[in-house]
What does this fold into?
Amino acid sequence: MTKQIQLYLAILLLLGLVSACSQDEGDPEPRKVELTPIDQYTSIDKVSGTIYIKDLPGSLGNTHASGHTPVFFDLETHQIINPYEDENTLLELPEEQQKSKAWDLGFTGVYNSLLAINKGTDSRSPGYGGQGQGAILVMDAQFDEVDEAPSEETFEAFMQVQATSGWENYPPGHKGWFFYSLESHIMRPVSGITILLRTPDGKYAKVEMTSIYLGNPEKPTINSPAPYFTFRYFLQEDGSRNLKTR
It folds into this structure.
């Protein structure tokens, strides 16, 4: 083999290595999420442990005027814990259970759109008077970008301002999960935010709300059935602050 051929092959090898390194340094292809059904409304991404809730019925058959029964959700069992009168009719959760640690996330207010936490020492919480240690924080970050729960000081600083999340900037300065149009009376989710939770027993979770309308329509109307919750969440069962899902 001549020196010229050896040099040519060496250059080709070097170029191949440079090309491979350049590809490795680029952004990896997003992993395709495969969901495994758990029940009628719930699926799980077994790789990340993220739970997906789709079209979970809230307090149906009510209006702004008639009010909506608060809905209480257990992240561990991914179930609403309210009693039911029938398949489509939620009943009020007894006060003693509201003050228990049996629920992690409350859907309260008009169309169950106001997210509430279970904190026994906070009069703004449905769990007031109980033993819950819950907290909430709305972070400007994509769901999979949140790798760790914030410090207790960060949670408490946020809680000084608000203990719920609903309509964006209402009251002024409050961070919400949806925009509301006074003209169309439609709720649309705020993009690029994640709701961080400390559960009543001190565990950590992150939540991304997607829709409150049945079927998660691209263009909901005032006639779109609601409330039907579509959201995803990750609960760290071991009590650590690790919320990594990517």
In short: Confidence is low (pLDDT under 50) at residues 5-24. Helices lie at 3-25, 95-98, 152-161. The two ends are 49 Å apart (CA to CA). The CA atoms of residues 11 and 241 lie 49 Å apart.
